[in-house]
Fold this protein.
Amino acid sequence: MASDKSESKKLALLYLQDLFLERTDETHFIRMPDILEYLAEKNVFVDRRTVYTDISILNQAGFEIVGVAEKGGYKYHHPSRLFDTSELKFLIDSIAASKFLTERKSKELIAKVKTLGSSFDNAALNRGVLSPKRIKSMNDKVFKNLDLLYAAISSNSQITFQYMRWNIMRKLEPLRSGKLFSASPCAVSLSDDNYYLVAFDSRTNTIRHYRIDKMSSIKLTCEPREGKDIFKSFDIVDYSRKTFGMFSGQEETVTVEAPNNLVGVFIDRFGEAANIRKNFNNPDTFLVRIAVNVSPQFFAWIFGLGKDVKIISPQSVRDEFVKTTNDILSNYNP
């Protein structure tokens, strides 16, 4: 019996930590009678002196509990938290908005994030952002795939995998009749709310990328990665900035003319890499030089900026833009 009582007292430290995390924060306190009552509910019967000792031990261990004097005694709280309420809201909103997470995984992660706040945060953290109309991934293997790919990069290993695509029955089916792809992983990129693997393909001697949620049966091989010379100079931020919708294309330095009120659009997309200058021939517009991977997705981005935005050079890109536009318009000609 004495042994059971001793064991229960050892649990008091853990219960106290849970109590202060759940029921106190910067503005909410708890008093000694409530602490003793909470411990009694857990079948831990101790006196005030034991609680004082345990609070001191928790403080020494780095878990801060502050006592504030008030009329008739003290009130206590755990004021500092790893994340404040606004940060927790941001994390929850980010999880809910992530298309690469399934709805089930999003709910699991949001529930875990909520435990980082106190019970007083619950109402504020019930964000209601997981709308059933929001597009979410239908594949729950992203986390597992990410772990395998990071392991391949850190161990300098090539990988094999199946690459999948959606069919009209909303099922993922393998490309090339299930034949394995092979690649040398270089980096992971998050673009348009999807994770992509950027890898070197020795068959074509090019950099390619793959949607990670569409990769299946990933295996590390005993072969070391190829394309090391490319990896040395590879800049994932620069690559992502130049590539629209993660569609490959020939890299070109393109000059674009646009109205002055759109300068922020180019700065937001390209940052300091956008070489912007005044257009002395038309003060209402500016000229910008940008390095991009020319693709139909880049043309769609330019097209979406409106009729007053036009590609100036090189002529080959202008011609390709016109051809792409005419090819699309031909679908609507009678």
In short: The first strand starts at residue 30 and ends at 31. Residues 129-135 have pLDDT under 50 and may be disordered.
